[in-house]
# Entry
Amino acid sequence: MIHSKNITKKYGQTQVLNIEELEIPKGQSFGLVGNNGAGKTTFFNIILDLIRPTTGEISNHDVVVNKSEDWKSFTGSFIDETFLIGYLTAEEYFDFIGDLRGMNKADITNFLSQFEEIFNGEILGKKKYLRDLSKGNQKKAGIVAALLGNPQVVILDEPFANLDPTTQIRLKKMLKQLTENKEVTILISSHDLSHVTEVCERIVVLDKGNVVKDIETSKETLKELESYFAV
Amino acid sequence: MFSRFFKLEWKKYFRSSYWQKGIALKIIMGFFALYMMASFLALGVGSFFIIRKTMPESDPLQVVNSYLLFAIVGDLIFRYLMQKMPVMEVKPLLILPIKKNKLVNYVLGKSMFSPFNIFSLFFYIPFAIVLMIENYSVSGAFAWLFSMIFITQCANFLNFIINKNNVAFWTLAVLLIGTIALQYFNIYDVSIHSQALFDAVFANPVLVLIPIGLMVILYNINYKILRQQLYLDDAVKVTVKEANTADLSWANRFGEMAPFVKNEIRLIWRNKRTKTVFLMSFAFVLYGLIFFTNPMYEEKMKGMLIFASLFITGGFVLNYGQFIPAWESAYYKMLMTQNISYRKYLETKWFLMSIMTAALFLLATPYIYYGVDKYLMIAAGALYNIGFNTLVLLYMGSFNRKQIDLNASGFGNTQGTSAKQFIVILPVLVIPIGLFYAFSIPFGFNAGITAIAGFGILGIVTKNYFMNIISKKYIKEKYAAIHAFDQKA
# Structure
């Protein structure tokens, strides 16, 4: 579970994030929606302790993220392609991250075998460095790497962007399975309202850094969101 | 259309990230550029008089002429290795309503002004001016100069035609080495033909039409080829290098450090800039040849010998260490979300630098030839590099704030450089020289190098203590580093 308290972030005079209190219980699939500049990535970056909040603190399974690094062992994330090591091949990248998450070679191969469909023969065994893969394939590699080592918390920024339709559907299925037995918490952000409403049981709308909506997903949610964003 | 292309070039030049640097760096690089230009000009102006002085019985122009053929073939080989047609730059223009033949002319026209063609002018122009001043025929000097300019352009266009052809390269290489060998062993004199050829241009200025004609022909051949190939899957294609996946499982013996060691090896080997640094560190081993062979340093400036000794084994530590952790700036964010202990991460870097220093020290063994005292100096330098310089550079690394693009080329690339890189010279090079003098003046040479070695050993013994401080420092500087590495240089 993730608990965020009084989080604000200011750059000079401009406030980019102001979230009073937000609690994401264990096993929830949580979706973050908002226009460009709403603060989605900033919020994720604060959860991952990549930037410091101006005030407040976030704890991830009772670990305060900027006080201890223990959350890293159970949190998998992919924000953007700068999370990839461009000069590695996909296999080497998975080995590297799997190694850091205490998996051996056999574990990793075994784990990757379930993604064969998603990889579509374009990622593994291709003798290509990650920097030379297409944007969509880079994204696939990054998302799969975030799932290595059975993380308890998975954070994905814009996971559907750049993916082909088939993979979008598969990814949605995969994310739903992940939260089925309420063990893994997933946090995703997206511009695509239909995708998030499909995957997430709870959706929070950010606007200029403020939480403007916090809804439990139902049949009407998509309509509600669409009317909110249609200005 | 021409003016539009020109404006594009203008903006490209002045908005290049090259100019977005600190003022201090700009000044230093400006001086460096001026110095290089001045040296070339001096060579162009001076060579006439130097030749006249050293070979008073022959005509300087003829001497230069006799070597020109070699220079031209050498130039072609150099271009083959280094020069590429600037064809990628028209990629964004391909979809715009611009006629393809204009784009082809733009690419080819632009290539005429490449630095490869401008460089030699710094020699040819002053040399031709000196000829005129020295009462050679003005028309002859002009004809000579212009044939040189057009021959350079011919080389430019010829290179694009043969560029993808290995056979052409080896033919050229064999031609150059063969003729030089023939010349050297006095079997066949090629230089006479070279001289006759260019003397003829000087005597008959009309002959300048030959290189001009040749250039026009080569331009047209290039034009025809490129016009047909101006497609994304042909000339305007990004060539993707096949990944080379060497088996690094031997590195598994390093236990917890293994994933980092493997990654580090790949980092160094698969990126241009790091590869240059790695290979250059072997060139640094040769530093001693400059200093140990000159008795002047032995007698008057022992400090310079210490300096050389540090450089012999320090090439890797200094060049690689000073940019830690900026080498990994591209994916630093990711590393920070991984299950990594900072200590292990830094430990790997220390380990790598130490191993490399030890390897370079082994390579430096032949210096024993210059005396055991020299060898001891190098040994002391190696100890200092391992014990002290590694820690200093790791510590200073926590202040690195400049992003490095690993894909950019290695030579003369100053990305990632800041004033910090100059400050670091102090502990890294000045302290050992100071130590040497402080101990060798009262107690003799041996005490001097023992002091340096002792300092290094002290560093090795207290390594754990200092590594803890350094890791804390990195954790403190984490956010600033992440933020800074996000800014593209």
Remarks:
- Chain A has a mean pLDDT of 90.
- Residues 107 and 186 of chain A are 22 Å apart (CA to CA).
- The beta strands of chain A are 2-11, 14-24, 29-33, 55-60, 63-64, 75-78, 153-157, 185-190, 202-207, 210-216.
